[in-house]
Amino acid sequence: MTIPGSEYLTKIIHAASQCLLIPVIIGLIILLIYGLMELGSFLGERRTRKKRKSFQLLETAINTESEFPWQGNQIKQIIEKSCFSTRQTKLVGDLLKESKLSKEAKELIAKDILDQEEAQLRRILNKTDLLAKVGPILGLMGTLIPLGPGLAALGQGDFVGLSEAIIVAFDTTVVGMLIGAVGALISKIRNAWYNQDLNTLEMVLNLIIGGDEHA
Question: Is 194 among the domain residues?
Fold first, then answer.
């Protein structure tokens, strides 16, 4: 039984879905280019991190002649050995110079530094998280949209039209999954890096506050 007027609704839905094919393909191309750019940035970041020796608190404690809590030059050595970015190094160095501030003021500044860095690192991760989520979605849309005309072509015996539709469907699927895989891999590794950075940053800030307290 056919509902009166339903054919007009199905035609509207069909036209809308077919109109989305070109934007979906353009979106996949844009995400692919962006994913390659993020991959290059990730490899450069990884190369930079490999050049730096991972900071270990126990090793530093053994090699430090002065007793805990460390102060001044000892904390500077910790900062130099860490994998901090230029921005993080400057923020921590500026706080270390402010010896006249009270402990409460330094605690507030340290909390603000941690909050700012966490937000900044989250913005970086959001870019690759977007690739991991949107890439497969667009790939699936690019798979399903051409299958409708492809099946219609099969019903009419048009095997050329069917093969063209299947090629488009497979290509968009592969590209979408590739984008998602690249984004997920980068996000996973960066998330581990940044959690370690935040832990080290929090530890150094606590050393600065504790060191001044016992000075």
Answer: yes
Do the Cβ atoms of 208 and 110 come closer than 8 Å? Answer: yes
Is residue 4 included in any domain, yes or no?
no
Of 88, 144, 135, give the one whose Cα is nearest residue 116: 88
pTM for the full predicted model:
0.78
pLDDT by residue (tens digit) across 116-156? 889 999 999 999 999 999 999 999 999 988 888 787 777 78
Quick: pLDDT tens for 64-74.
454 444 455 56
Q: What Cα–Cα distance (Å) separates residue 75 from each residue in 17, 107, 201?
A: 60, 17, 12
What domain range includes position 141? 23-213
Peptide bond into 69 cis (omega under 30): yes
In this structure, is residue 18 part of a structural domain? no
Choose among 208, 215, 214: nearest CA to 106.
Answer: 208
Judge whether 65 lies within some domain.
Answer: yes
* CA triple 93-210-87, angle to 5 deg: 20
